[in-house]
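Researcher: I'm preparing a figure for a lab meeting and need a structural model of a single chain. I don't have an experimental structure, so a prediction will have to do for now. The sequence is pasted below. Please return the structure as tokens so I can convert it later.
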Amino acid sequence: MSWLTAEQALNLLGTKSQTLYANVSRGRIRAKADPADTRRSLYFADDVKRLATRHAGRRKTEAVAAEAIQWGDPVLPSALSTVSNGRLFYRGKDAAVLAESASLEDVALLLWDMKRPLRFEQNETLRKPPSLNSAFSMLAERITGDLPSLGRSLPALQNEAESVFGTVAEALAPGPWDQPLHRRLAAAWNRSDAEDVIRRSLVLLADHELNASTFTARITASAGATLSAATLSGLSTLTGPLHGGAWQSVRMLIARAATTGVDEAVRSYLAEGRPLPAFGHQLYPDVDIRGEALLGCFTPPPLFARVRDVGEQLVGERVNVDFALTAMTDAYHLPQDAPLIIFALARTVGWLAHAMEQATSGRLIRPRARYVGPPVP
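Model: Understood. Here is the structure written out token by token.
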């Protein structure tokens, strides 16, 4: 993430300082204190550049669309979640506050706008360990049998979402149907001491506005596909190393730190021109509130703590939720793929919420491509 001084921002915008401050107060430009001089502020470069382009009157339709797809303006209206002033909100409720006591099931009721408790179908089949492969296969089996989402009422979709969520829960958090999911998952891993921190992480990861996997799920639902298909789309996208698979990069950093020493490991990443994994987040100028809330619930292992301290000092960015999840996995001796299991289970709630919101809008998401290939006749 790059930041500009007030002088640099004003030069780009071509406006007076009062206009710059007004854009900050309205949330159009993110700002933070200058570490070198706390009396001054730094301004998020991408926000300034976007606003400067808009003011210059050069924003053609294709430029707006391209920018929107890459960390630009929101491309879809949604009433589900947003990041505002460094906080994450679910339907107007602070996610970090909800994480103090709520369960993932509570968040599902909130995001799905349901007026009754969730009811999972009792399944007496032989329970296996939490498995992402099982989630993929079980969702795929549903797709051809489930009804399309197009033209169905919200209550009907809510019932289907509950069933799809139950399918994912059976694969990722197998256990007694009448137990909360965080308890089921902790029991499946034989780590009852991790129940509360798993609960908190599930709540914090349930939704995050239009991230890559959620956008994918919405596109699938916009075509009228089943909710199980939308969920499978989101799950597939989540596995990418730039999304839910980011924990593997954190593991690699920690492994290098264990071998070469923390300072050398961090400096080697920077010397190679590689961004330090899980430091900083585009939507949080100061700190990823999800990571901060989660790290406040347990003591990170010493090596993680040292990497965090050295990295934050050299990079100038705080660790994010991917770092916190990986540190939590190590602290509680969970399976190595626990971050992705937790992420997938939690985000299923968000994918289903967005899929239902998109399906009931009746609108197909169909961007146009700006052709840059060989000339055509």
